[in-house]
Amino acid sequence: MWLTRPLSERSTQLFLGILFIAMLLVTVLHVALPEGHALHVSAYTVTLLGKYLCYALLAVAVDLVWGYLGILSLGHGAFFALGGYAMGMYLMRQIGDRGVYGDPLLPDFMVFLNWDALPWYWQGFDMAWFAVIMVLLAPGLLALVFGFLAFRSRVTGVYLSIITQALTFALMLAFFRNEMGFGGNNGLTDFKDILGFNLRTDATRLGLFLATGVALAVGYIVCRAIVASKLGRVSIACRDAEARTRFLGYRVERVQLFVFVVSAMLAGVAGALYVPQVGIINPSEFSPLFSIEIVVWVALGGRATLYGAVIGAVLVNYAKTVFTGIMPDAWLFALGALFVLVTVFLPKGIAGLLPSLRRPKVGDDPAAPGPGHDPGYDPDHDPDQAADAQSPANREATV
Amino acid sequence: MSILRSLTQLFVVCCLSLPLLAHAQDTREEGPALLQALAEASSADKGDVISRIAKSGDERARDWLAAFADGKLSRIEDSGQFVIVLENRGRNWTVADALTGEPMGEVSRRELDTIRINNALRRELDSILSVIDLTVNNAERRLEAARALRGRVDAALSKRLAELLPDESDDRVRTVLQDALAIYRLEQGDITAVAPLSGSLNSEVRAALTSAARSDDPKLVAAANDALASIEQKLKFNRAAETLYFGLSLGSVLVLAAIGLAITFGVMGVINMAHGELIMLGAYTTWGMQQLLPGQPGLALVLSIPAGFLVSALAGVAIERSVIQFLKGRPLETLLATFGVSLILQQLVRTVISPLNRTVITPEWMSGSVMINEALSLTLNRLYVLGFALVVFAGLMLIMRKTRLGLEVRAVTQNRAMARSMGIKATRVDIMTFALGSGVAGLAGVALSQLTNVGPNLGQNYIIDSFMVVVFGGVGSLWGTLVAGLSLGTINQLLEPWAGAVLAKIVVLVFIILFIQKRPRGLFPQKGRAAEG
C-alpha cells in the first residue's frame, strides 16, 4: 500500500506524466517518422537519452541519501559501477563462442591472460535472473557492510564523504588490476546481445531506453514512498538533528543503513541499464571524479526534491554532450564553474526556482523544507552553535 | 698528519719516476719492437709477449693491451704502422697512432690488419690489465680495479696480488684485494678462507661461498653455510633498512602533501578539495623558475621554495575570498565548491601550459646516492625531501605554538565568538591561516617536483591520500599528521613486496576506512574542551 501512496501526490503525478509523455514522444518520433525527417529521433539519440535516464536514476539515488538523510556520498559511482559490472558479466557470458578467440566459456580477456577456467565469481552469470539478483545484491551488500560499519561508529558528515571517496578510489585501483578477473584496464565490452535480442538493432535500443524510463519511474516512486513514509520522516529528522532524533529513541543507524542500502541498489540498477546502452564498463566509472559529478547534478537540480535530481542529471549531461562536442577543453571549466556557482549562488538548485511546484498541500509533504529553511542546514551550525561549527572535532563531538 | 703523509707520497712518487724518466728513452724504442713481436707471434707465444709488454713499464702499454683485448689494435698493411682503432663502424675506421697517440683520421677497413686474439688470451689480458690498474696512483681507480677482480683471480694473478698487497696504502683497496684473494683460496678448497669472507655483502663473495657449500668437503660445507647464514642475516637487515628508508621517504611525501591540509582542514575545518591543485601549482612554480633561470637548476630550485610558497598562498587567498568565505559552516558545500575550483585549476594548467608532463631538472647536488654499504644505498633526492618535510613540519609547529598568529588561530578555532570579543580579527586570521596552509601545499609541490612527474594531474593523485593521512592522524593534530604520514608510508612499503604496489595501496586504504570506523577521531584525538564542543 505504501508504495502506491506517492501516486496520489500532485508532484509525483506531474513528474510521471512528463516522463511518460517524453518517452512516448521519443518513441513515436523514432518509429513513425522516416529517417531524414527533421523531427526524426535517431537511434543514436535514443541511446543517448537512455544514458541520461540512467544518470537520472543514479541522481535520484544520490538525492535520497543526500537530500533526505544528510549523507553526502562521494562513492555512489562505486555502486553504479558494481551494478554495471554485474550486467557486464552477464553480457560477456552471452557472447559465448562468438568472441575473437572463440572460446565457448571464457571471455576474450581471460583467454588472452591464459586463464584456463572461469573464476568462481563468474559462475551463474550466464543466467539472466542470477545477473538481475547480483545487480541488486552486489551494490546492496557493499553498502550494507560499509554502512553498518560507518553508521554504527557514528561516522557522519565530512568524514563519511571522504571515506566513501576512498572506498570508490580503492575499488577503482582494484578493478584496474588484471588479476581481479574483470578485464582490468579495458573492462568488459564487445557485447553481442541481451536476453536474446541483438544489442545493435534499433529495436533493442529503443527497448532499453523504455526499460530505463520505466526503471526511473519505479525508482522515483520507491524513493517518494520511502520519503513520505514514517521511516522517511525519521530519516529527515536524522538529517536535520541526528543527536536529537537519537535522544528521542529512534535507532538512527538502522534508518541510515536502510536508506543507504536502498539507494545503493537503485544506483546498481542504473548501472546495469547503463552498460548495455553504452556498450562498455570499465574501472573509470569508479573514479572519484564521476562520483562527485553525480553530486553536482543533484546540487544543480535541487536537493531533497528527487525531481530536481532528474532535472540536474539531464541538464548537466546534455551540457556535457554539447560542450565536449564543440569545445572539449571548455567542459572542465564549465563543470568547475558549475560546482562553484551552484553551491555559492544557488544553494536550492533549479528546483528552488520553481516555487509553485514546491508548495505542498498542507501536511502532504513533510520533506519539502518550509520557507526560510536552508537546504544546507546542518545541526552543527545552528546559529547558536555557529561559533563552534568551525572545528571538525566539534562536529563529531556533538553526536 | 695528512700533510706529512702527502709529502711522503710526493717523495715516493718522485723517487719512482726518476728512473722511469731515465728509462723512457729506451722504451720509446722498445715499444715498436714489442708490438712487432706481438703481431708476429703465434697465438701460443702471444702470452709471453703480453707479459713482456706489461712488464716493460711503458706508460702506453695499458692502452695497447686494452685495445688488443678489444680487437682494436691494428697494423696498416702497407706501412707497417701500428694504430689503435677508435671507431670501427662503417667502411672507413677512425684510427690513432699507437706509438704517439696522435689521431690519424680515417683509414679504409681493408688496409688494416687487426692483430688477432683468442678467448684464453683475453682472460689473461683482463687480469694483467687489472694488475696494471692496481698500480696507478689514484686510489679510487685502484678500488674500482680491485672490485672488478673479485671472483676472477687465478693462480698467476693470485701471486701478483699477494705481492701487491703489502704495498697497498689504501685500506679499502686492501680489504677488497684480501676478499678477492680469499675467494680464490676458497675456490681452491681452503677452509681458512671462509672466516675473512663471512662479513662481506658482495655478490661474488656470496657466489663463491654458495659453490663452496656444494663441495665435497663436509667441513668446508658447514663453514660456508655458517658464513652464508651470517651474510643472509646482514642482507636481511640491510633490506629492512632499505624498506624503512623507502617507507619513510614515501611517508615524508605524504606528510608534505597532508601537512598543509592539516592546517586548513584540521585546524580551520575547511574542506579544501583544491589542496592537491595548490601542490600542483607549487610544482609548476619550480618548473617555471627553471625556465626563467636556464642552466642553473640548483639556484632555481632554492628560489622556488619561497616562490612556490607565495604562489600557492596567493592562490589559496583567492580561493578563500572568492568561494570559501561564503560557505562558512557548510562543510559539504565547501567540499563541492572547492572541488569545482580544483577542476578549473587543472584545466587552466592544461590549457595555458600543456596537458603533457613537464620535466623538472634535478640539480647535481641532489642526484646520485649515498652508499652506506654494498647492499644499501640511499638516493639523495629522497633524503633531501625527507629532511625538507621535517623542516617544514618543525617550522609549522613553531608558527602554531610560538607566534602570535598561531595563538590567534587556536583561539579562533576553539571559540570564535570569544576570540572576536577579545579583539582578534577573525576574518583576518581565517585568511592568514588559509594562506599558510596553501603555501605549505606549494612547498610540497616544490619537493614533489623532484620525485614525480609534474603534470596537471599531480595534485589529484595526492588529494585522497592527504585527507586519509589527516583523518588517520586525528583532525587538528599536527603531530598526528606526521606520525600518520610516516607510518602509512612505511606500511605501504612493507606490504609492497608481497602484495604489489597497487594492492598495497588498496590494503592501506581499506585499513584506514576500517580504522576510522573504529576510532572516528584518528590516532591522536583532540582532548579537553576543544573536543567536547
Strand order within the widest sheet of chain A? 1-4
Supply the helix-strand structural class of chain B.
alpha+beta
Strand order of the largest sheet of chain B: 4-3-2-1-5
Question: What's the order of the H and E elements of chain A?
Answer: HHHHHHEEEHHHHEHHHHH
In helices, the fraction of residues of chain A equals 55-70%
CATH class of the domain at 237-360 and 379-525 in chain B: Mainly Alpha
Secondary-structure element order of chain B, N to C: HHHEEEEEHHHHHHHHHHEEHHHHHHHH
What is the mean pLDDT of chain A? Answer: 85
Instruction: Choose one word for the global shape of chain A.
Output: globular
Low-confidence stretches of chain A: 361-399
Describe this protein's structure.
The complex is a heterodimer of chains A (399) and B (533). Chain A has 15 helices and four strands. By secondary structure, chain A is mainly alpha-helical. The two termini of chain A are 35 Å apart. Chain B has 533 residues and is an alpha+beta fold. Among the domains of chain B are: 23-122, SH3 type barrels; 237-360 and 379-525, ABC transporter involved in vitamin B12 uptake, BtuC, CATH 1.10.3470. Chain B is built from 21 helices and seven strands. Chain B has helices at residues 2-40, 43-55, 61-69, 119-134, 139-149, 155-164, 171-187, 194-197, 203-212, 218-267, 275-292, 297-322, 331-352, 380-402, 404-414, 416-421, 426-448, 460-473, 478-499, 501-518, 529-532; strands spanning 73-76, 82-87, 92-97, 103-108, 112-114, 369-373, 376-379. In chain B, strands 4-3-2-1-5 form a five-stranded antiparallel sheet. In chain B, α7 packs parallel to α9 (203-212). The longest helix of chain B is centred in the middle third of the chain and has 50 residues, at 218-267. The model of chain B is unreliable at 14-27 and 529-533 (pLDDT under 50). At the A-B interface, α5, α6, α11, α13 and α15 of A face α13, α15, α16, α18 and α20 of B.
